[in-house]
Amino acid sequence: MTALAATARYELRMQLRKPAIWIATGLPFGLWALFAVLGNDSTGLQRHLRETSPKVWIVEALGWFTPALPMVFGIVLADRLVRDRKLGVAKLLDVTPTNRSARLVGKYLGACAATAVPVALVYLGVAAAFMVWREQPAALWWGLATFAVIVLPLLLLTGSLSFLGPQLMPTPLFRVLIVGLWFWAGVTEVESEFPSFAGTLLSLTMDYPLGVLFDSPNATTGPAGVALDFLRPQPTTGAALLALALILGLAAAILAAAGALNARTSE
Amino acid sequence: MRPLSLWRHEVRRAGWAALLTPLVAAVGLAVVAVDGAIRLDQSSRSTALALQSLLELALPLAAGMGAANLVGRDPAVELQLTLPTAYRATILRRLLVTAGWVAVIALTTAAFMVASGWWHRWPEAHPALAGQLTWLAPTLCLSGLGLLAGALSGSPAVASIVVASVWVFEYAAVGPLQEHRWSRLLYLFATTRGTVDQDWTANRLTLLAAGVAMTSAGWLLLRRPSRLLTKEAE
Fold it and tell me: Model ipTM?
């Protein structure tokens, strides 16, 4: 437990000092703001300025920023595990009397927590601004709920992928593939008939939790009459919870695979 | 023979990641096109769009990400900086290797499309020769952006985020970006995701100019070796 906590704490503090994670979140947020400013009356800033519902403000106004986050997480976290090996630190850590799995999980949790901090500040900032502007404290709760239910599961899934992927292929290739994966499992049009995870329980744009729990009009849910429709049940609360469970379970399974591969490579 | 062996060395230094990435991106889109044409029996227009997207979306992204990973990954940069050859010249050679490989794949694909007739089945396609700007302009622009972001940050992660974010933003914000002339001129996907027809040539030339300007700016920034030594280790 000590090794896990110490590794997580070190990784968190070390990463928070890196400008990379702040820039990596700040840039997509800046582009999202530009998107809102450039948009026309029905999609842009004017519409958001007229909005009085805290839920709509948090879920829809951040509607472009949030779905892009898996890509950001994947690229930022891609080198976390392989970096230790490249710098020669992994062998040193291996001779310490600590459990390798505990170190891996600690590193994973610390890296994910550090990556979550700038995004949490964005949500907090947007919710606080709305709270002051519209005098609606509920904005803080909606911000917290969206962050916990949408952002964190995505972070845990892409974080585990980033611990496994770069062990199987070079990091630059993984960074391109995570953009491709995000595109295939989130942005592909469901009606295109090409088999994809878009609009499924495993969608990287979190369609079921967003659609069912937050009534987001941007989410695509329900059977579409195309391939992989068994992963597109009717949008119910159960389906949304199942989507969350599947994503968290998949994250745990991928992290376990990353741990096993890491142990095998180190031997 | 020395220059040839130098280039061979740079190809090896770029590694199979740099060579494999555009191939994987191209094969991915080609599979979508073939699947659509054979299994789904979709219209030839949709298949032609997938092939044009291979040229205008997938390959420039691979080139940009390759350029973003050039600065900050060398394990012996201190040693490199002691050599008579400027390190920025080495970086530029590697940029030529990665972008050149993308150009080879793009030209091969374009030649196949022209010879098989798929090129002209996309209504917005331009004549074959000028049409090469479909991939050349965004490839040069994103490569320049990747190099500049890498030179500014010294971090492949940050440079990759810059390239990927701009790519995704341009893909997602197609509507708002078509509403202003300045954003239409800077739009990366003018052939496949639409722009005002008479803007196409101006758009491509603007992207080429932006690519050259960003590559030059990156080159100038890399002039000072201290920039490379003070960055965080990747």
Answer: 0.81
As a whole number of angstroms, the distance between CA B176 and CA B158 comes to: 26
Query: Cβ contacts (< 8 Å) between B32 and chain A: which residues?
Result: 194
Domain carrying residue A91: 2-266
Domain extent listing, chain B: 2-229
Q: Note the residue count of chain A.
A: 267
**pLDDT, block means (10 residues), chain A with 267 residues:** 88 89 87 76 66 79 78 88 82 83 92 93 89 86 91 94 92 87 83 82 91 86 84 93 96 95 81
Query: 10 Å Cβ neighbour count for B232?
Result: 14
A79/B157 CB distance under 8 A? yes
**N-terminal to C-terminal alpha carbon distance within chain B:** 34
Task: Assign B178 a pLDDT band (cuts: 50, 70, 90).
Answer: confident
Distance (Å, whole) CA B234 – CA B224:
19
Candidate from B15, B66, B173 with C-beta closest to A35: B173
Q: Quote the CA–CA distance of B187 and A38 in Å, as a whole number.
A: 14
- Contact assignment for B160 to A44 by CB distance below 8 Å: no
Q: Could you tell me where the DSSP H helices lie in chain A?
A: 2-16, 19-38, 45-50, 54-61, 65-77, 80-86, 89-94, 100-134, 138-146, 152-168, 171-182, 207-208, 214, 237-266
Q: Which residues contact A19 (CB under 8 A, 6 or more apart)?
A: B153, B155, B158, B232
Q: Within 13 Å of residue B63, how many CA atoms lie on the same side as its CB?
A: 30
User: Which chain B residues have a beta carbon less than 8 Å from that of A176?
Assistant: 21, 24-25, 61-62, 65
Number of domains in chain A: 1
Provide mean pLDDT across the span B28-53.
83
Whole-angstrom CA distances from B120 to A128, B30, B203 are 53, 17, 20
User: Are B157 and A78 inside 8 Å of each other by CB?
Assistant: yes
> With contact defined as beta carbons under 8 Å apart, do B137 and B54 qualify?
no
Q: Are A211 and A220 in contact (CB under 8 A)?
A: yes
